[in-house]
Design a protein that fits this description.
Order of helices and strands: HH
Oligomer: single chain
Helix content: 55-70%
Strand content: under 5%
Number of strands: 0
Radius of gyration: 22 Å
Largest sheet: none
Number of helices: 2
Structural class: mainly alpha
Length: 89
C-alpha cells in the first residue's frame, strides 16, 4: 500500500541551495545600510559646517548621528530589533 502523508508536511524545495547566496545578499545589505547612514550624516554635517562656518563640529556631531542611524538600520534589517523589549528566552 501507499504511504500516508500528513496535511501539514511541506515537501522539500527542489533546486540548488540558496542559503549561501542569501547570506551574502544580507551581508551586502547590512554593510550598505551602515555605510549609507554614516555618509548621509557626514554630508549633512559638512553642509552645516559650510553654511554656518562652525567647522568641524557639525561634521563630528552628524557623523555620530549617522553612525547611530546606520547601526539602528542594520539591526532593523537583520531582524534583531523586532524582539527588543519582549521578555523570555
Amino acid at each position: 500500500m501507499g504511504q500516508v502523508r500528513s496535511k501539514t508536511e511541506v515537501p522539500a524545495p527542489k533546486g540548488r541551495d540558496t542559503s549561501a547566496s542569501s547570506g551574502a545578499a544580507l551581508a551586502f545589505r547590512l554593510g550598505a545600510e551602515f555605510v549609507s547612514g554614516v555618509l548621509v550624516g557626514a554630508l549633512i554635517g559638512y553642509g552645516l559646517d559650510r553654511l554656518f562656518s562652525i567647522a568641524p563640529w557639525g561634521m563630528i556631531v552628524f557623523t555620530l548621528f549617522g553612525f547611530a542611524a546606520g547601526v539602528t538600520n542594520m539591526l532593523r534589517a537583520s531582524g534583531e530589533g523586532r524582539n527588543r523589549g519582549k521578555t523570555g528566552t
